[in-house]
Amino acid sequence: MPMDFEFPTKVRDLVATIAPLDVFDIVVVAMIFYKMYQMIQDTRAITLVKGLMVIALLTVICGWLNLHVMSWLLQKSSDWLLIALPILFQPELRRALEHIGQGQFLHQSNSLLDKKEADSVVDEIVKTAKKLSQTKTGALMVLEREMKLNDISVTGIHIDGIISSEFLLNVFIVNTPLHDGAAIIRGNRLISAACVLPLTENHELSTELGTRHRAAIGLSEQCDALIVVVSEETGTISVAENGRMVRHLDEQTLAAKIRPAFTRREDKLFGNVLSKWRGKK
Length: 281
What we know:
By secondary structure, this protein is α+β, with helices and mostly antiparallel strands. It has 2 domains: 2-101, no CATH class; 115-261, YojJ-like (1 (3-Layer(aba) Sandwich), CATH 3.40.1700. The chain is 53% helix and 13% strand. It has 11 helices and 7 strands. The protein has helices at residues 6-16, 20-40, 44-64, 68-88, 90-101, 115-135, 150-153, 165-171, 211-222, 251-258, 270-280, and strands at 139-143, 157-162, 182-186, 189-195, 226-230, 237-241, 244-246. A 7-stranded mixed beta sheet has the order 2-4-3-1-5-6-7, sandwiched between helices. The radius of gyration is 24 Å and the shape is elongated.
């Protein structure tokens, strides 16, 4: 009978040792880990994380089974991984440091638009992409999100004009100084054009993808921007995000894909809790 109360007593004693600062500490750490997960989800880094988890699990299993040779090999591999991690996660580490430096690690950018303005900008960009696709005019449109792209915008020509389809079409007129390179869009304004983007180092991409597509993927590997690409050869509309590219988009799918760049993203975990709390009030 005393055994029935042993476990609850230990739990009660453990809870009694938790101070308010301990709760605050746990909440802060949980928020940091959740933010880190948001940054790497749907990227190639999440595959690397899964691989590290498999290695850690194998190390525990081999130690439990007393497989000394396997345990030694896995431990040595873990030592080398500690050195390789900064190289493997270079884009994600850079993104996290830039978020911290800009004070945006735990909150959203304040340059987002309200629903009416966002719908208007999305419509203008979709209309532009459709017309460029019909005429097979190559184009790169970078939609800035939380991470500022000032280092990219300074490589082009400063403009700072209100977004409209007619304005964007004039920017991408063939054989003009602004045609080559990318246009940087921040909110409802075109801030710069003819910008130079970094090319991806991913050698596994299809040979069908030209320089524009590789430049779009290269920038998306280094920041959280959405990059709209119109192919000069086929007129295909594509969007690059987090090192991946979605191709052959129509008007509806393109609008749905780029709208999050202009509207505030709701946090599925904390947002639902806050909405329920406000509803009760």
